[in-house]
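Work Package 4 report. The design task specified in the project plan requires that, given a folded chain encoded as structure tokens, an amino acid be chosen for each position. We show below one input record used in the internal validation round.
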């Protein structure tokens, strides 16, 4: 076993402890984790942790290869890499065969809280100094991307990238992004770089200057009836990144005839009035993470267009502060932990 250090849950708090990683299998790489993003999923996982089992959060990280298995040819020691929220899949089902490992019929192995497909152990996440992963599920990190700011691309980024590409976002497309947070700010950057006309839907106009800086043309204020009425039936695609339960009706009314609302923020139960879909033949879709081909394409696109997340980097010892501020919405737009303080 390989020994490292990380932040493990004890109740609903995280404590620095020694962690153990598996010895390298033939197709594994060991990654020194340098930067790991802090996601709402981490916050929810901690809140739901009942003390049973081991929980080490973190599923969007960048680092450097420090060791490789005997059959690995894709990477060498010293290569910069990026790892997201999926670290294995069955590899043979219909979804895996088309490069949608995120929809694996046997369910993908998650970066933390998942079950290793070989030995049945619980996967421990990227809030640690080292991670061992199948080389297929590590991506070369383009040299054009700053590692700390690139880390959130591997969860927040791919979560909005894949549905936008599936929905054909590009020149001539009118796109709205609901919620200007960790996912939303990247959705705005992607849509603008893809050539779409982009708007942000927000509860207030306070972030209008930020939205325009990120690439939006304007802001639709969801609490202002005049603003929403003016935007009714306007958007071909609406990417809903709001991470809490909310009524989809007002957002569907902003979607154009034959347009689509893609809900990627809140993954709980949804209630939709059929009339909100019927009037305008509107569609409701969702998505989660991305397959390996889509993730590679996203990283290449980001390198070409200079896209990374807007981040606030904190030493990992301040992880509790990051989680508390994330809970209060006090971040623009993604916290990233610097793991170098773990040694």
């Amino acid at each position: 076993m390989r020994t490292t250090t990380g932040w493990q849950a004890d109740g609903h708090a995280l404590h620095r402890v020694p962690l153990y990683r598996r010895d390298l299998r033939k197709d594994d790489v060991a990654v020194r984790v340098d930067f790991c993003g802090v996601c709402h999923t981490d916050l929810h996982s901690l809140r739901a942790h009942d003390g049973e089992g081991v929980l080490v959060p973190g599923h969007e990280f960048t680092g450097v290869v420090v060791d490789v298995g005997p059959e690995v040819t894709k990477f060498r020691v010293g290569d910069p890499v990026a790892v997201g929220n999926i670290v294995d899949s069955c590899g043979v089902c219909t979804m895996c065969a088309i490069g949608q490992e995120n929809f694996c019929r046997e369910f993908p192995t998650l970066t933390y809280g998942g079950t290793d497909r070989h030995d049945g152990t619980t996967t421990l996440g990227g809030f640690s100094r080292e991670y061992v992963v199948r080389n297929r599920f590590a991506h070369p990190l383009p040299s054009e991307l700053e590692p700390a700011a690139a880390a959130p691309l591997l969860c927040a980024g791919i979560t909005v990238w894949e549905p936008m590409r599936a929905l054909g976002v590009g020149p001539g497309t009118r796109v709205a992004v609901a919620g200007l947070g960790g996912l939303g700010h990247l959705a705005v950057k992607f849509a603008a770089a893809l050539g779409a006309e982009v708007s942000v839907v927000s509860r207030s106009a306070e972030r209008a200057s930020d939205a325009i800086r990120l690439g939006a043309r304007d802001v639709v204020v969801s609490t202002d009836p005049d603003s929403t009425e003016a935007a009714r039936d306007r958007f071909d695609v609406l990417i809903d990144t709001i991470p809490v339960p909310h009524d989809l009706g007002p957002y569907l009314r902003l979607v154009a005839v034959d347009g689509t609302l893609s809900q990627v923020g809140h993954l709980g139960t949804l209630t939709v009035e059929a009339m909100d879909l019927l009037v305008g033949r509107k569609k409701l879709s969702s998505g989660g993470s991305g397959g390996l081909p889509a993730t590679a394409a996203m990283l290449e696109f980001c390198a070409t267009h200079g896209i990374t997340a807007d981040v606030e980097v904190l030493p990992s010892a301040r992880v509790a502060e990051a989680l508390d501020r994330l809970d209060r919405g006090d971040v623009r737009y993604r916290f990233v932990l610097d793991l170098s303080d773990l040694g």
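The chain has a mean pLDDT of 97. Validation will be extended to a larger panel in the next phase.
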